[in-house]
Amino acid sequence: MRTFFEPEQQEEFEAAQELMVRRFAVWAEQQGLPADPWVAEAAWDYRHAATPDGRLTLWSPAHVREFLLEWIPRRLTVQPGEELPDGPGTLATLLRYFDETGLRDPRGGALEANRAALETTAGQFRAAMADRELWGMAKFWATTAAEQGVDITDPHAMRRFSERAQRGQVPYDEALVERIMRRQFGSVPFAERALPQLPVVLPPLEELRDQARQSAVVRQLRVFTEWVGPAGRKLTTTGRLQMADGRCAGTDGTARYRRYRRSGACRSDTSHPLQCRPAGSAPAF
């Protein structure tokens, strides 16, 4: 089974996702293990759309924690009276399914490490799902509508609810909505898919070194380190450059130092290599 799709291959991804969920559900039933189809589908959505590499069967402990404690709480709407889906149990079954069917990407976390992360997050999952601060805007409004008796599966009922909300006729926690919006739209909690990168052939190492030596930045750094010298520059008691050194360095220190050096204003001695002469003897420019 194919386990990687480029971002623009959405139709191919959805077809593979549907096939995987069906096969996974059959396998889990045969094994007598928990398997919520929505959670399995959401797991692939998360790895396909919200992680840079998009490797559907590559899971690490960090992926486990983010999926269970951030991704699902933001997106999964549980209506009043509905039972909370077994997110940790389903993900544990899914990772086992990947491992036993040869789909697991070996570049991911070890099965034992992922299991340890699952055990840690399992106790936090219910609280994360109930924490309204973690909800997304779509989940907030869907839950608010459901709590007020609206059938959220009915598009016409949801449209009427939306119109009433826009007219200010729906009671809701305005401060919470502002915090959710600030978190959701003011930050990027989930990574985006990385763009495909073409292969790059680098020149030989010596050629790279030659190019670096010709860089203006490298030349400036070389001049600057020469001016500083192996012993460093003598500082005042407050940790600042002495006045003569400050004038020698200036705001464009390396360029001014080169002019000083050419004019003879900077000299070498045993204590401070390439030390500047006192300010009175420095040429004006």
Label this structure with key terms.
285 residues; mainly alpha; disordered C terminus
Q: Topology of this protein?
A:
Layout lengths: L9 H22 L5 H13 L11 H15 L11 H14 L10 H20 L6 H11 L7 H12 L7 H13 L18 H9 L2 H13 L14 H7 L3 H11 L2 E2 L7 E2 L9
Antiparallel strand pairs: 1-2
Descriptive report:
The chain is mostly helical and 285 residues long. It is built from 12 helices and 2 strands. The protein has helices at residues 10-31, 37-49, 61-75, 87-100, 111-130, 137-147, 155-166, 174-186, 205-213, 216-228, 243-249, 253-263, and strands spanning 266-267, 275-276. A two-stranded antiparallel ribbon has the order 1-2. A hairpin with a 7-residue loop joins strand 1 and strand 2 (275-276). It is extended and about 80 Å long. Mean pLDDT is 84; it is low at 251-285.
Order of helices and strands: HHHHHHHHHHHHEE
Shape: extended
For the largest beta-sheet, the strand count, sense and barrel status come to: 2 strands, antiparallel
Q: Span from first to last CA?
A: 73 Å
For the secondary structure, the number of strands is 2
- Structural Rg: 31 Å
Number of helices: 12
pLDDT < 50 runs, ≥5 residues: 251-285
Strand content: under 5%
What proportion of the residues is helical, as a percent range? 55-70%
Strand order of the largest sheet: 1-2
Mean of pLDDT: 84
Structural class determined from secondary elements = mainly alpha
